[in-house]
Structure formats: C-alpha cells, structure tokens
Amino acid sequence: MALLEIKNITKTYNGNPILNNFSMTVDKGEVIVIVGPSGCGKSTLLRCINGLETIENGEIFLDGEKISGKKDMHLIRQKIGMGFQSYDLFPNMTVLNNILLGPVKAQKRSKNDVTEEAELLLKRVGLLDKKNVFPRTLSGGQKQRVAIIRSLCMHPEIMLFDEVTAALDPEMIREVLDVMIDLAKEGKTMLIVTHQMEFARAIADRVIFIDEGTIVEEDKPEIFFTNPATQRAKEFLKVFHFDNVKKNN
Fold first, then answer.
1. Which of 75, 83, 71, 120 is nearest to 102 (CA)?
2. Does 248 score more than 80 pLDDT?
3. CA 89 to CA 77: how far, in whole Å?
4. How sure is the predictor about 167, in pLDDT bands with cuts at 50, 70 and 90?
5. Tens digits of residue pLDDT in 138-160
6. Strand order in the sheet with 4-13
7. Alpha carbon of 221 to those of 143, 173, 183: distances in Å?
8. In the chain, where do the E strands start and end?
9. CB–CB of 49/60 below 8 Å?
10. Do 225 and 196 touch, CB atoms closer than 8 A?
11. How does residue 182 score in pLDDT terms, banded at 50, 70 and 90?
12. What are phi and psi of 93, to 5 degrees?
C-alpha cells in the first residue's frame, strides 16, 4: 500500500482548473521530485495534500486513511511536515522554542525529550550554537534549516517541500539542499517541488513533470533528464541547458 495516494483530484480557482483529475502515489521511503513551469499546479498540489487548499473532486489518502475533507485536519498535519519558501518562524521566540512549540503543545510530549532531540538535530546541521538566539539574527539558509528541523521534530510520516531554496542567495542554497539529501539517505519519505534541476537529479527516486495541472511524464531521474519521452518535457528541460552558447561580437 502506498503511503500517500491521490485519486483523481480537481482544484480550480475562479473556474480555472489548476489540478485536473490528478492522480499519483508515493511509497514509504520514496523521494519524488515534482518539476514543471510556473503556474502548472505544483505548489497547489502540496497545499491540497496538507489541507491548506480544498479540492472539488477526488480523494487523498495517507497510510490508507482518507484525509481530504477531514474536519480535524490540524491533527493530520502533525503527520505531514511542510517546508515553505518562507520560514514562518515566530520572531519573538528563540530558535529552540520555535522547535519545541509543536511537539510540546500540540503533541503533549515531554519538553526534556523534545529538547534533547532538537539539540541533536541542530548540532547535525551546524546550528546548535544558535539555539538561544532569535530568528532575526539568522541568515536565510539558517532559518530554513531551523524550519526543517521544526517539522522533523513533529515526527511526520511524509515531508513536503515547496521551493524551500527559492528565497535564498546562491551561497545559502547548498546549506539547505545538503540537509534534504541527508534526509533522503535516511529513508525519509519526501515530496519535493523545486526548480533546482541538478538537485532533483541527485535526490529523486522518481521525477514527475506537471503541466497545466496534469502529469505529462514521470520516470527515473537518469532517464527523465537525459532522454525525456515527451516533446513538452524536452522543451521544458531545454531552458536549463546553455551548452555551446557563444556570445557574438
């Protein structure tokens, strides 16, 4: 049984289809990267999975349980970690207290136990010395790493990442991508939306290419990036290649 199953969902804005009879599955431990042009429905898909957007038709299942349309979606979200482009850290709370808030308040776990886990994770990503500072003192890459750890401390069954490096300077992008690559090596189940094609190629078990709210193509990264089957995918990937381009004098 797939960990996440999406069956024929439809999402529209003002009558315009964003996701059109969309279906896919994610197995436990699988890393799926979703790529496609801006406005194709990638981010909307993640928001529908997490219940931040409602769907008009179809169903979404997590570990066999239907989660779409649930009234207690706040409980379901504890099983679905989410990384956004913005970090959404509370500015009036220290790094450590930002991390502790969900597990201690929502999950009623021991503060000492969660603190120990949080400190281990912060040490792993090189931020243990920042545990008592406020978010305003951190760089963008540091804030994003804290946001990822905050989600991990909730012990989610699946992590959703929506362009988490989009707002970062190039030098900070690698800091965040390295954390995600480590999670993949540990067998974390992840669904990642990104425009970082080299990263997608390195981390994905499967690449799904979306356009106009539907899946145009999906395959292993070594096939998708070297020999895409559809003309639309070829056109999309061509944007990222600049080989043999010379400036005319």
1. 75
2. no
3. 17
4. confident
5. 998 999 999 999 999 999 999 99
6. 16-26, 4-13, 57-62, 65-66
7. 29, 21, 18
8. 4-13, 16-26, 31-35, 57-62, 65-66, 80-83, 158-162, 190-193, 206-211, 214-219
9. yes
10. no
11. very high
12. -125, 145
> In which band, very low, low, confident or very high, does the pLDDT at 14 lie, cut at 50, 70 and 90?
confident
Which pair of structure tokens corresponds to residue 175? 């800091």
Identity of the amino acid at 249: N
CA 67, CA 191: separation in Å to the nearest integer?
Answer: 17
Contact 21, 58 (CB under 8 A): yes
What is the rounded CA–CA span in Å between residue 234 and residue 218? 13
User: Residue 120's pLDDT is what?
Assistant: 94
> Distance between CA atoms of 146 and 142, rounded to whole angstroms?
6
Tens-digit pLDDT profile for residues 30-66: 999 999 998 899 999 999 999 999 999 999 999 999 9
What pTM value is reported for the model?
Answer: 0.89
CB atoms within 10 A of CB 4: 23
Question: Which residue do the tokens 């990442």 mark?
Answer: 161
Nearest of 166, 162, 131, 163 to residue 146 by alpha carbon: 131
The span from the CA of 145 to the CA of 48, in Å, is 24
What are residue 159's phi and psi, to 5 degrees? Answer: -110, 130
List, as own/partner pairs, every contact residues 16-22 make where C-beta atoms lie below 8 angstroms and the sequence separation is at least 24, other chains included: 17/212, 17/213, 18/44, 18/213, 19/44, 19/45, 19/48, 19/55, 19/213, 20/212, 20/213, 20/214, 21/57, 21/58, 21/214, 22/58, 22/213, 22/214, 22/215
Q: Which H helix or E strand runs over 239?
A: none
